[in-house]
Amino acid sequence: MVRYVYDFADGGRDMADLLGGKGANLAEMARLGLPVPPGFTVTTEACRAFLATGAEPAGLGREVSEHLSALERTAGRQLGRPDDPLLLSVRSGARFSMPGMMETILDIGLNDACVLGLAKASGDGRFAWDSYRRLLQMFGGTVMGVDGSLFEGVMSDLKHSRGVANDLDLNATELAGLVEAYKDLVHRETGEHFPQSPREQLHRAVNAVFESWNSERARLYRRREHISDSLGTAVTVQTMVFGNLGPDSGSGVAFTRDPATGRPGPYGDYLANAQGEDVVAGIRNTVPLTALKQLDSTSYARLCDHLRTLEAHYRDLCDIEFTIERGRLWMLQTRVGKRTAEAAFTIAAELIDEGLITPDEGLARVSGHGLARLMFPRFDTSAVGGALTHGLPASPGAAVGAVVFDSPEAVRRADAGEQVVLVRQETTPDDLPGMIAAQAVLTSRGGKTSHAAVVARGMGKVCVCGAERLAVEAGRHRFTVGDSTVEEGTVISVDGSDGAVYLGAAPMVDSAVMRYFETGTGSAGLTDAVARTMARADGVRRLEVRANADTPEDAARARRFGAQGVGLCRTEHMFLGERRELVEAMILARGEGEREEALRALLPLQRQDFTGILRAMDGLPVTIRLMDPPLHEFLPDRTDLAVRVATAEARGTAPDPHDAELLDAVNRMHEENPMLGLRGVRLGLVVPGLVAMQVRAIAEAVVERTRAGGSPKAEIMVPLVGAVEELRIERAEVERVLAEVSRESGMTVRCPVGTMIELPRAALTAGRIAQEAEFFSFGTNDLTQTTWGFSRDDVEAAFFSAYLDKGILTASPFETIDVEGVGRLVRIAVEEGRAGRSDLKIGVCGEHGGDPDSVHFFHTAGLDYVSCSPFRVPIARLEAGRAALPETKCSDSR
Q: Is the pTM value of this prediction over 0.90?
């Protein structure tokens, strides 16, 4: 028989798949002897069964009743008992942390009778009525579907009529009146009365949490974080403890280390006379956790002791929620905390030094995505004036954008290509689309553990919170700071590293981490942590990392970044700019003489380019791809030519003879789909002399570098091969020219010849192609395009957003490898290619080679190297090291 409910005593941290992260970690804290309010957890299996049928699974109600009875015996109180009621919290808890995305309902069990008993038992009528209004607001919004802003409006009207600014300034009588107003609101909006039965409240609250798994904001968050929709959420039911019982009570969020910088020591926010939701909602500005030492030194000392226990036990940064009830500390939640990229590298290095984790575990706890963020530029503060305002630096980085005040406007402008900064008093889970669309988030309220801060850190977004001088007037689409007014659309710069906000677009400078990769030097702290991590990654990785580089400058930069060669040198990129006319002349040549003249002009230019790249990569392989342009890239625009010729004719004048000649040639060579037309190996086979010119330029560059004392290692790659016969013919031409240059120079020129695998047919016939190829390099951009039938130039704007929204795609297949489709072709080609040639070298040179998730796939698929743009080389090195770790060691980057 399936078991759906577990007491805290029956669980542990290794049961997160079943109990969710919250339930598993509460059970773990209870096992450690920490002060956890008793409770039980309804499993993710129950949620999945509920979502599949729309009804509770058989037996769930009975199990909940049994565990509730046990909880009542432990607490010495009963749910619904009028004189001293047991109150409960009902909270979501998925396998992976999804802060603020699903529902929480506190104070379950209060009704018109129990609120009076709670007031008498606690000796505090204000507290009782405050708890009841909180239940009505949460239950009414979450379970009964009342718009939350309506409750806020009633509260605002009450405070305005009483002349107070803070909820705490309302007395018991005023709160009792607020309760009645809330009940009337619920009835007016839903047609039903707020349920007075505590059992019904519990039942409906659990089901509402289940249903929140499929809310739009939760689904959007999961798509962004690549969390499966099939997991479901657990529900934790726990005895309420109260931080809103007066000045000797309160709630807070604590971290064992600073999640923004990684600095050790207790860190967080505290709010006196508040329940936990007040802290993360940012409705009142918190005080730093250290202030608790003055407010309640005993609780502070106990909290610090528990923080040390948890960090030592989890061997990682821990994120804790706690409540103090009249001087008694309770631990409400712990989890391995989300952190910024800077904190991830710093914490990993420090935990290694403290002996808590191994170097391999430290490597597993960082990611290429995080390293990429650390390589982003920072503001040049020396070049800007004074800051407009300051807030709390909640998530580091530098971002520039136009001010917007609501989520829909942020999405609209971002979809139009504009960079925006979302400015709010405080964010709520409903702001998630706008937070995703924005470059940065700026709030006037809330601390470093508010909703805005936690979600932004998790997404790697720049965030500044609690900028108290910022008066946000969202309804008027503006904010003010003192005498300064900033209207919607005004560009501002937000520095999440120090909390500063500047008017206008502040200039950028390279980050310290980028300077480290450029120069190989850095200071202690973050760059030292990055350097140590990179050294470990290089020490354990199997995959080599090369760079895609088309100029000597790119090759030199890639080598500084740690590239072990050039995996793709695109020769057609060398013909842009002033050289375009030479290629145009070659393509449009009407006879052999004109073509040979154009090729002779191109030869020394190509030789010069290859010599420079081989010099920059001396001693390392340089894979040079023979020319592969869609011809339209080197021909004049057909429409422009036609318009010029037609305009001249319409005026009764003769068109320019050159324009007329070009138009005639362009019309002859026009292709409806040039990406699938005369390019790659096909171009080499039908344009006489082109391959010979390029191979001669390569071979003569090798001779020149060898005579200069270098060690050139050029490799020649034939693009877009679909049949082995194509490669056989072109390889014969390559070897003929190499032999010719060898005779002329008196020096043996040896260049391995391979091919790109970028067509499905090439992958499926890889065994035959390997008989003529000494290496393969997957061109995953074209392989993705031809496998999916997607035009990579058009589909992103045309329909990718709809495909992502509908869950057809979880990520663009041009950014992260499609493992099921394109990946299967890669595996087939690797297996059959090596069966045809045992010493076949295999790599990838599409931009997937620098995508962190794709690098892991290429490792498992058995490739020898990945190649990517120079700036992604460090990312690929890091992920290649992480991919080589045992699977159990590599933590989830979320």
A: no
